[in-house]
Amino acid sequence: VQYKVTTRTVSDYGFMTLNLNNVASYPIIVQLVTDKGELRRELYATENRSFEFENLTPGKYYVRVVYDTNENRIWDTGNFLEGRQPEQIIYYPKLIEVRANWTLNETFTLD
């Protein structure tokens, strides 16, 4: 049995480094979401660091940061009966365009 798998070359993809400023607390989840709202990549951090997104399909992306207050690595909704608020999400204010064979360096200052 033979199965042939083909993939694009490295130059067909983009690369982005994201630096965050003013992070109120850790851990956090950093997500790349398409302009249609589909989650494409997700990175988790327990301390200050740069986030590198490699081999990104060219397209337009939003960045969102989730404060993972209960440290379970997923976003949690609130609970009215328990008086618990949902975990905070902060969106990068602009849409980021990733192009093939490009390297982007973005800095996101959280308010």
Descriptive notes:
The chain has no helices and eight strands. The chain has one domain (10-101): Immunoglobulin-like (Sandwich). The strands form two sheets. Strands 2, 3, 5, 6 and 7 form a five-stranded antiparallel beta sheet that branches. A three-stranded mixed beta sheet has the order 4-1-8, with no helix packed on it. The protein is 0% helix and 45% strand. The termini are far apart. It is an all-beta fold. The chain is globular, with a radius of gyration of 16 Å. The mean pLDDT is 94. It has strands at 14-21, 28-34, 39-45, 51-56, 59-67, 89-91, 96-98, 103-109.
Q: β content, as a range? A: over 45%
Shape: globular
The name of the CATH topology is Immunoglobulin-like
Helix content: under 10%
**Main sheet characteristics:** 5 strands, antiparallel
Sheet/helix structural class: mainly beta
Distance between the termini: 56 Å
Alpha carbon gyration radius: 16 Å
Number of helix segments?
Answer: 0
- CATH secondary-structure class: Mainly Beta
Number of domains: 1
Q: How do the helices and strands follow one another from N- to C-terminus?
A: EEEEEEEE
CATH architecture: Sandwich
Let me know the number of strands: 8
Low-pLDDT residue intervals, each spanning 5 or more residues: none
Mean pLDDT value? 94
